[in-house]
Design brief:
About 75% of the residues lie in helices and about 0% in strands. By secondary structure, the chain is mostly helical.
């Protein structure tokens, strides 16, 4: 999201150094051009000596922070944003971009505080509402998330990311028709946007379109093979399209990375049962129950009983629950 947002950063705030303003402006403009061309390491290399000479230039600090964030150096980005905000406490964009980075660092409280500050400083910035919606979604405040995505759209944000994210928020609010409209719009705007593919994959699973879901998750995993969560959702689609043995590969990888998630063991139990591995399925159901009780999700424990009884009695397996 920073690639789109930072295009306006030079116009959002102006800090002139006491001397050398034309040279400074030229250096910053060149750095901005490098950033816009997605040459993030070159951006940082150009800004390092400039910031050494102008250590309180908030524009330069934020731009370098954004370049670091694009390279997944979130701690380095955070350090630059902190100095920039100390130098320019009314710089709305600095709070917005720090909000994004804090969310990446799992600091949801800090992210929410920063997005609130950005919106207070510039209530017309739709991207700040979009970022705050992301924070609300992460903390499972889905109603507030949906409201902020709506605000972002009303303020002019229109992108595959927005509609994919709002599709997810609508789904979590039970508004499946609205979710479907946004998911379709996201794909129309950019069929390759990962947020759009993810949202469509999740919606297809919830609405029982398992063949469609498998298509989306195959696409996602092909482009993001290290996304363990995507492999879980693909396994759910595989389980529900009669491909349990293929699902096992994804689920084994998922459980290796997420051994404390009962859903992984529950889903693997389904795949093992359908692959005639009754003992393995029962062991996974037992482990899922242990983890669900530990998490306090007792409603999921209740749902395991019928499946275990069918395996033990060697009768037809009940329909799989919604993933």
């Amino acid at each position: 999201m920073r690639f789109h947002a930072v295009l306006l950063s030079l116009a959002c705030f102006f800090v002139a150094s006491a001397t050398g303003v034309p040279a400074a402006e030229g250096a910053l403009a060149q750095a901005q051009q490098l950033f816009n061309a997605q040459k993030y390491r070159e951006t940082i290399a150009l800004l390092d000596p400039y910031i050494a000479a102008h250590p309180r230039d908030a524009r330069a600090l934020v731009l370098r922070g954004d370049a670091k964030a694009e390279l997944d150096d979130n701690q380095g980005a955070l350090a630059d944003y902190n100095v920039a905000i100390d130098a320019a406490p009314d710089y709305a964009y600095a709070y917005r971009t720090r909000c994004e980075t804090r969310l990446q660092l799992d600091d949801e409280d800090g992210a929410l505080s920063d997005c609130n500050a950005a919106i207070k400083l510039d209530p017309t910035d739709g991207r700040a509402f979009e970022d705050r919606a992301d924070v609300y979604f992460e903390v499972e405040a889905y109603r507030q998330s949906l409201a902020d995505y709506d605000s972002a759209e009303s303020l002019g944000v229109s992108s595959a990311y927005l509609y994919g994210a709002r599709c997810d928020a609508s789904r979590m609010n039970g508004l499946l028709d609205r979710a479907a409209a946004d998911c379709a719009k996201a794909l129309l705007l950019d069929p390759h946007k990962m947020t759009a593919v993810w949202a469509n994959g999740r919606l297809a699973l919830v609405t029982g379109r398992f063949s469609d879901a498998l298509k989306y998750w195959n696409d996602y995993v092909a482009r993001e093979p290290d996304s363990i969560n995507a492999r879980y959702w693909r396994a759910a689609a595989l389980d529900r399209t009669g491909n349990p043995k293929a699902a096992l590969d994804d689920l084994n990888a998922y459980i290796a990375k997420r051994p404390g998630d009962g859903d992984g063991f529950r889903e693997r139990a389904f795949a093992r049962a359908a692959s005639s591995d009754a003992a393995g399925a029962l062991a996974d159901l037992q482990q899922a129950a242990v983890l669900y009780r530990h998490d306090g999700t007792y409603d999921k424990v209740d749902g395991l009983d019928a499946f275990a009884k069918a395996i033990q009695a060697k009768t037809a397996l009940p329909p799989l629950p919604a993933p």
